Amino acid sequence: MAEVKDRHSYTIRYKKAWHGKQKAMAEVYGDWEDSYALLPRLMGAMEESNPGTVFVPVYNNVYTEDQVRVQDKLMFHRLFWAFKPCIDGFGFCIPVIQVDGTFLTGKYKGCLLIATGVDGNRRIFPLAFALVEGENSLSWAWFFDQLHEHVTQREDITIISDRHAGIRNAVGGFPDEWGWRWRWCIRHWLANF
How far is CA 13 from CA 4, 18, 19, 22, 107, in A? Predict the structure, then answer.
């Protein structure tokens, strides 16, 4: 709005500026559907340039209003990924993993889940990421399963998180053979207190 006013000495309404920005973004970057359609290609390119990188996409079947499955059509549901250098580097990290999630904004809602480790210099070390439908028990349990299978493969790991109900429920389902423990993040605990 400010740029239009500076260039053309004309004040436009917020709604018109917002719609103009959306059209420009779609023209430059493509629309939302195009972006999700390019996801498998993006994963393939990242896998090719980073051998050993793990991508675990999950797609759901598409159904019509009459609950008839549409043949050869899948809809994106979840995605887990971890880069090979991060997977290898975790072997040299302290056996502590911090997990958290953040909500996505835009046309499609969802949540980005993140797992980070701590290296020998007490620096944050990225481990794994996931795009999921929301921060709930099912998505956290799926994320922890993927994290255990593809990244950690160690026992005696401590998971640190906030007290989100989805995490609490997922942590309760950790198999005993994993040897994982769960602790609360003191910063989140103090903020809630």
Answer: 11, 9, 10, 15, 22
